[in-house]
Automatic annotation (TrEMBL):
GO molecular function (one): hydrolase activity, hydrolyzing O-glycosyl compounds
GO biological process, one term: carbohydrate metabolic process
Keywords associated with the record: NADP, Oxidoreductase
Organism, scientific name: Sphingomonas jatrophae
Catalysed reactions, semicolon-separated: dTDP-beta-L-rhamnose + NADP(+) = dTDP-4-dehydro-beta-L-rhamnose + NADPH + H(+)
Short name of one Pfam family: RmlD_sub_bind
Its biological purpose: Catalyzes the reduction of dTDP-6-deoxy-L-lyxo-4-hexulose to yield dTDP-L-rhamnose.
Protein's name according to its UniProt entry: dTDP-4-dehydrorhamnose reductase
PANTHER family to which the protein is assigned, alphabetical: DTDP-4-DEHYDRORHAMNOSE REDUCTASE (PTHR10491), METHIONINE ADENOSYLTRANSFERASE 2 SUBUNIT BETA (PTHR10491:SF4)
Gene3D superfamilies per record: Glycosidases, NAD(P)-binding Rossmann-like Domain, UDP-galactose 4-epimerase, domain 1
């Protein structure tokens, strides 16, 4: 038996909504970076799902545009990465056609013929990615073009894509008779209350329809025959069954959201889950959030597909849009699941590291601008940066070491996965047994706002950690550092301690320097000497405010205050230390600490009192939970050097106060803008201290962060009468 292969793929969707096309290859910047392919090859990928999409090659039904593909496919060949050519990926073709057009299938066949004739050496093909999923989103739910919302259109769209696949493979095999069809689709299972059993049963039958059609199984004896034939497609079903195009490999795409649960008791679930069929309303939510024990998930999907078709399988997308450690856990679990499936006698060729460059807008189902989800590489800073996933995927095929957090339990196995009233099932698959690595994350600063925030985040994210106070590690006594590190053997250290009294530091600069610089550098050096990742924190106050654009990581510090000088000394002392990350941040605020600006504002306004704030000092306020999550992700990634982690908006303190007041439903008229010099600050502060980033670590939009703050403090502060 051949070893389990590692495949990969950049998210390459080109889909249409209204008159607008969304092209993930352009959004990720891969369009302009040939060097990405060398980065992919460095992961050890043997095959790559790669787009030669109809919409891109012939966007206006004119002469095909080959230059980009000649260059990329040629480079893939040089690198020894076998392309799995995709021709339509959640799309509906160029503007002259669509999924309901009689010309869609023959048109795709002609496109496939051109591609095969130009690249006759390509062996593996996916003419249409996820045809069932695309038909649902385009012609049943109306999200994507042509925006139909009826069952007849859904079946027509599916049959057109299946006929397009058949036409494509016929054309390809006229050029290369050994060409293989690798047919992908999302495969989940629907669970339900007894009252919703009929709908769940239909969903669980429909999910096979695309593959069943290609295998020639939808004949008059198939339970879906009558339903599809009623859409006027009986003759086409007979033609497909008489001349099927069975996949050589069934590509299973399975996400944590793939398994669904339907419940007629709408009152148990939030509004956004409510839907229904023609006869009954019901909530539709992730099964893993309701069922206990949880559904068998990916292992169950592989088992069902193997039992149904008996042809080799591949896991063709592995991606989790989550925090870094959860991404690592999902990838490792997918690999281990594939190995276990093989050991049980199932045939599986490969596991695919998906969304190599991340993805854009899936939180809006590609219907509007949305968030960027980091992939194996993070492109938020422009150039691709390898995340911890890159190291993991390189290690999996050889059984190499995994990051300690990857060995811990994913949220989908932990009790907090259950967001709704639990439905207990009589049987289920127990969570995978995982080997726990004893190494922990060490958080220095047990009593501080930041230290406590890191501890809360680690608890929520399932990261084993130890929080220390000054009696364990005292940065004013560097002799306490080495012994603690050697005893606890952490994989990483977060230095959340420090002198924070900016004005007091003017009179006590030596004491501030001992904690913020001398001790912090000693801790970072000790970590570097032991190969331990280390995260420390600097400040926007290392700058003098003389420039008119946001400061980025490469800008030289010019501090005005004693506190700023201590942080600049920290940065200088940590420069070049391997594994040491220094995060510059600014004006952080928290719903769990009564000693920060936003809390003080809300408390003051709730008592009907005025609140003064500087109108001439500009900062980039940062919500502590966003700061902590971004910092943890970077620490797990092994990021080094200086990174800016701050909110995305540069605002004055007064504007920040107004936004917080409005979000908390407090009286903004009580916010009094003043000059900074009127506030009695002893330490000089830069008038403009906005932080930007050239490395891509901006925490989140300020309004989103303020909304998060307001949600957390709701009920604590009420508008004064």
């Amino acid at each position: 038996m051949q070893p389990l292969q590692l495949w990969g793929g950049p998210e390459c969707t080109v889909n249409r909504s209204g008159d607008a096309y969304l092209d993930q290859t352009r959004l990720s910047g891969h369009q302009d970076r040939l060097g990405d392919l060398d980065l992919f090859a460095g992961l050890g990928i043997t095959a790559i799902r790669y787009p030669v999409l109809w919409e891109r090659v012939s966007p206006d039904n004119g002469p095909p545009q080959w230059h980009w593909y000649d260059e990329r496919l040629g480079r893939l060949r040089q690198l020894g990465m076998r392309p799995i050519a995709g021709l339509v990926h959640h799309g509906s073709g160029p503007r002259h056609t669509d999924l309901l057009d009689d010309g869609f299938a023959p048109g795709l066949g002609r496109h496939a013929a051109m591609v095969a004739e130009r690249y006759p050496w390509i062996e593996d093909w996916t003419p249409v990615n996820e045809p069932l999923t695309t038909a649902r989103f385009s012609c049943l739910y109306g999200h994507w073009y042509p925006h139909a919302r009826d069952e007849a259109s859904f079946w027509l769209a599916l049959v057109n894509q299946v006929d397009g696949t058949r036409a494509a493979m016929q054309a390809i095999r006229r050029v290369n008779s050994s060409a293989r069809l690798i047919q992908t689709d999302d495969l989940g299972r629907t669970y339900a209350t007894t009252r919703m059993a009929e709908q769940a049963g239909f969903d669980n039958l429909r999910r096979w329809a695309g593959w069943d059609l290609l295998f020639g199984r939808i004949t008059p004896h198939h339970p879906l025959w009558e339903r599809i034939a009623r859409a006027g497609l009986g003759d086409r079903l007979r033609a497909i069954a008489d001349d099927p195009c069975p996949p050589d490999v069934v590509g299973v795409n399975h996400y944590l959201t793939s398994d669904r649960f339907l419940d007629h008791r709408l009152q148990r679930y939030p509004q956004h889950t409510h839907g229904g069929n023609e006869r009954m309303a019901y909530a539709d939510t992730e099964a893993v959030r309701v069922l206990d024990p949880p559904p068998p998930g990916l292992a169950g999907a592989l088992g069902e597909a193997w039992q149904r078709y008996g042809v080799p399988l591949a896991i063709t997308e592995v991606h989790n849009g989550c925090t870094r450690e959860e991404q690592l856990r999902w990838a490792a679990e997918a690999w281990d699941t594939a190995l276990a499936f093989r050991a049980s006698g199932g045939q599986i060729e490969a596991v695919t590291a998906w969304a190599l460059l991340g993805s854009q807008g899936w939180n809006t189902l590609l219907t509007a601008p949305g968030i960027y989800e980091t992939g194996v590489f993070d492109i938020s800073g422009g150039a691709p940066r390898p995340t911890a996933l890159a190291s993991l995927w390189r290690a999996l095929p050889t059984g190499g070491p995994r990051h300690p957090v990857a060995s811990e339990t994913g949220w989908w196995h932990r009790p907090e996965r259950l967001l709704h009233r639990t439905l207990t099932r009589p049987s289920g698959v127990a969570p995978a047994v995982q080997t726990q690595d004893e190494r922990v994350l060490l958080i220095c600063g047990a009593t501080g706002t930041l230290g406590q925030a890191f501890a809360r985040a680690c608890a929520a994210r399932g990261i084993r950690h130890v929080v220390t106070a000054r009696d364990t590690i005292d940065l004013e006594r560097p002799d306490t550092i080495a012994g603690t590190l050697d005893r606890l053997r952490p994989w990483g250290v977060v230095n959340a301690t420090g002198w924070v009294r900016v004005d007091d530091a003017e009179a006590e600069e030596a004491a501030c320097m001992r904690v913020n610089a001398t001790g912090a550098v000693a801790l970072a050096q000790a970590c570097a000497d032991r190969g331990i990742a280390c995260l420390g924190f600097s400040s926007d106050l290392v700058f003098d405010g003389a420039q008119a654009r946001p400061y980025v990581e490469s800008d030289a510090p010019r501090p005005l205050s004693a506190y700023g000088r201590s942080k600049a000394a920290l940065e200088a002392g940590c420069a070049g230390l391997p594994g040491v990350l220094v995060a510059r941040t600014a004006a952080f605020f928290s719903a769990d600490d009564p000693h920060n600006f936003a809390w003080s504002l809300a408390d003051t306004l709730s008592r009907g009192q005025r609140f003064v704030a500087a109108a001439d000092h500009v900062v980039t306020p940062t919500f502590v939970p966003a700061l902590v999550d971004t910092g943890l992700d970077l620490l797990i990634d092994g990021a080094e050097g200086i990174w800016h982690i701050a909110g995305s908006d540069a605002v004055s303190w007064a504007e920040f106060a107004l936004r917080v007041a409005r979000a908390c439903d407090l009286n903004p008229a009580l916010v009094i803008p003043v000059a900074g010099e009127a506030l009695g600050w002893r330490a000089p502060r830069p008038r403009y201290a906005a932080l930007g980033s050239e490395r891509g670590a901006t925490a989140a939009r300020l309004d989103d962060q303020i909304h998060g703050f307001a949600q957390r403090v709701r009920g604590r502060f009420a508008r004064a009468a």
